[in-house]
Amino acid sequence: MIDRYTRPEMGHIFSLENKYAIWQEIEVLACEAHAEMGKIGITREEAAWIRDHAKFDRAEVDEIEAVTNHDVIAFLTNMGSYIDAEVPEGEPKPSRWVHYGMTSSDLGDTALCYQLVQATDIIIEDVRRLGEICRRRAFEERDTVCVGRTHGIHAEPMTFGMKFGSWAWELRRDLDRLLDAREGTACGAISGAVGTYSSIDPFIEQYVCEHMGLGSDPLSTQVISRDHHAYLAGVLATTAATCERIALEVRNHQKTDTLEAEEPFRKGQKGSSAMPHKRNPITVEKVCGLSRVVKANAQVAFDNVALWHERDISHSSNERVALADSFIALDHMLHCLIRIIDGLVLYPARMKANLESTRGLIYSSKVLLALVDTGITREEAYAIVQRNSMQVWDDVQQAREGADLRTRLEADPDCTLTSEQLDAIFDPWSFLGRIDVVFDRLEQLSFE
Questions:
Q1: Residue 443 · residue 168 · CB < 8 Å
Q2: How many other CB atoms are found less than 10 A from the CB of residue 356?
Q3: Which CATH architecture has domain 3-97?
Q4: Which of 29, 96, 159, 445 has the most CB atoms within 10 Å of its CB?
Q5: Which residues pair with 345 in a beta bridge?
Q6: The whole model's pTM is what?
Q7: Is 272 a catalytic residue?
Q8: Both ends of the chain: CA-CA distance in Å?
């Protein structure tokens, strides 16, 4: 992702500086674990020296890697030079204990999982914040009546608060999935070349992982199995799809022909280089576009599950791009939506006008049931309502003057409803008498 889309917190997690810092900590912890075990020659004093003197310089690592063409060896060489720099001539070099019995993936995979946990924690807080905003706005707009749409066509009255509430529930499910994926990803492995612990005691893995706040992969094959990463990438993609759903709804409501809601338009903002009147939904359009990146990257993670035998590195190159980009993009999307949904501008008067624009057609389902209640068959009732509705529909589509559905029904000799019954039906709140159920449930929703 380009820099202006990257928040410093998330961008730092996937920086080389952070990765190398985690590598350093893993290597130091492994040395301390060896010293505690006492099975090899490293002393506690040497482990303490390594802790105090371990350092790296990214530019120097890059210079070494240009020669070795191996990032781990380049890092270890650089860190070792700092560990040994102040050791008197002729004394044993403490750096000889660094990476003892380990293979590159022990270091790289454990560090990557730690980075993914760091990044997931940020996304979790983003989702919590957006979810709480959606829940709050649901109650603010609980009684803001608007028309519900199915297939893009006016259906029945609802309230705009229900939209916010639906998003809040989906974000809560995203949060649950993220918490589950975080738990599955929070594991490390220091088990040697093919996972047999041939040159390193399992205690070292246990010690390092516990101090890093990770669990241990019960059976790694040099690499930590990529189903962990695929599941996490799938959860990120699902969360991105939620963001896209919210953003798309805002886009649809901001269309000139609808204009019931609008993303905030900042002072000094310009909508179009050619048309000064434009106020385009550019932020939510961006969210929809970035969602495609996160969803596509999930496929990369799924493809990484199947590796040759115990390990190859076909996964290594692409996940450095795909995982980082997915987290950075999703973090940016969520922060865009936090701002947009918190400040989403609503136009209740336009909602009312749209609600009435089809001249009562949205009440057809209530009329149908009321006719059945008078004793006629459903087929007879449907024919009465549809016949009159289609006449209104034609007038609306042709922008012709004409009677609304209530007037036509009252004049229809086949209609068995009284004027008082029609008055009760042609009220949007006749549909909303039970929405307390929805909002009572929403009262119980928590993002803790």
A1: no
A2: 13
A3: Orthogonal Bundle (1.10)
A4: 159
A5: 262
A6: 0.94
A7: yes
A8: 30
CA gap 354, 364 in Å, rounded: 16
* Tens digits of residue pLDDT in 180-190: 999 999 999 99
- Measuring CA to CA, which residue among 317, 284, 184, 296 is closest to residue 237? 296
Q: Is 12 a catalytic residue?
A: no
Q: Which amino acid is at 190?
A: I
**How far is the C-alpha of 420 from the C-alpha of 21, rounded, in Å?**
76
Residue 1 predicted with pLDDT over 50: no
pLDDT at 4: 53
Neighbours of 103 (CB within 10 A): 23
| Secondary structure E strands in 318-437 | 345-346
**Residues 32/47, Cβ–Cβ less than 8 Å:** yes
Tell me the Ramachandran region of residue 267: left when phi exceeds 0, alpha when psi lies from -120 to 50, beta otherwise: beta
User: Which numeric CATH code is attached to 361-425?
Assistant: 1.10.40.30
Calpha distance 332→399 (Å, rounded): 44
Closest CA to 405 of 447, 371, 442: 371
The residue from 12, 70, 199, 272 that is catalytic is 272
- For residue 329, which amino acid is it? A
To which H or E segment does residue 215 belong? strand 215-216
CATH code of the domain made up of 104-265+273-354: 1.20.200.10
